[in-house]
Amino acid sequence: MARQLTLLTSTSAWRLDDATRELGRRGVAEARAALRAGIAARPDSETPPEPPSQGRSAA
Prior knowledge:
- This protein is mainly alpha-helical.
- The chain contains one helix and no strands.
- The longest helix has 24 residues, at 18-41.
- The model has no long low-confidence stretch (mean pLDDT 81).
């Protein structure tokens, strides 16, 4: 079995401030808009690629 890194434990909780949270929300909204625009620009005849398999193959 491969060795795993030891997780660090923290005794103090941390929180993001409102400005950081808002910046993250705007970034996610921009990324979603870019994805929608990319999908909308795709020709109708082109089909989206198949997602990767989520299990083991029968081979």
